[in-house]
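Methods, example record. To illustrate the input and output format used throughout this study, we show the complete record for Hint domain-containing protein. The sequence lines were provided to the predictor; the line carrying structure tokens was produced by it.
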Amino acid sequence: MPYSIFMLPEELITVTGTNGGSGLDGQTQGSGVHLAPPNVSSSGAVITLNSNAWEEIEIDDDDANFGDSDTSQTLVNTETFGGQTFPANSIVEAEYAVIVEDPLGNQYQLVAFNIRQSGDSNSYGNVEGLAFIGPQGGFPPIGVPLTVISNEEGPNIAASTYATPICFAQGTLMTTPKGEVAVEDLRVGDLVHTEENGAEPVRWIGHKTFPAKAQFAPIEFAPGAIGNTRALRLSRQHRLLLTGWRAELFFGDEAVWVPAAHFLDWPGVRVVEGGMVTYFHVLLDGHRTLLAEGVEAESLHPGDVALCSLGATAEAELFAMFPEIERLSRRATSRPSLRAIEARAALAA
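The corresponding predicted structure is encoded as:
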């Protein structure tokens, strides 16, 4: 079965404080032990992600797990990393996994992405990059030191648990000053309605197509499920605005952002699998509240979590057009964003 893994190439990652090996590349059967305490120090090596240029790698497999030492996992396409080209059908592996912690105490699971190199007896020790376990948009922050606290050899993790993009599904009707317009028909410069400032121009729009399976399958809100006029489909972590007594009672705010997936226990909300789905990103001058099928939903937030889902080509285009993106990415979201446990408590009330 085919699936995609989003990974960051090794050349865009800085690793310091290792014990043996070189960067992500290890010398102990590709176990990641050269990064983790007590082999390094009491605190572990430090990994810093220097870019949001995640690359989508399509993999063909005979099962639903991306694991170590599995010869059925092969590249669908020819890929190039670190100046080396790997042909389609090359074997790929999840060589090792590490748990890292940022300065705020948030933890992330990173998986070493390895492509077997023909004729290299130490191929297990060569790592081409890192992939990330988490929900859609659940990537670690960029430019922040991540300290390794543990390692695991031979991970075998469901492909559906790897971090993936955030966006609107094709066909979603967006409110504009001229009426409802399908998101795929919006163009740069078109005006859309925002709850904060009325009409604002679209600064950039991008899209990507995925199999509508597992982590890529959209969340569908049946007509009326959340005040929507037609069926609304969003990626799992696309945030909707929760207003009213729940927001005020639980969080002391008139409105808060809640990811679409957290509404799954509500009547009329479900996961839709099958076929393909095309997701769209809409960027304005800031993080704004748009109307999608009549529902208050977020525009693209130019932060680390959002940008990382775009891929290298789209990210390069954005930075070329808007060099101020790096500054904007440090801004907070327009409203408080709920964590999973907070969202569950509010929506269950």
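Annotations derived from this record:
DSSP finds five helices and 27 strands in the chain.
The helical segments are 245-251, 304-307, 312-321, 325-328, 340-348.
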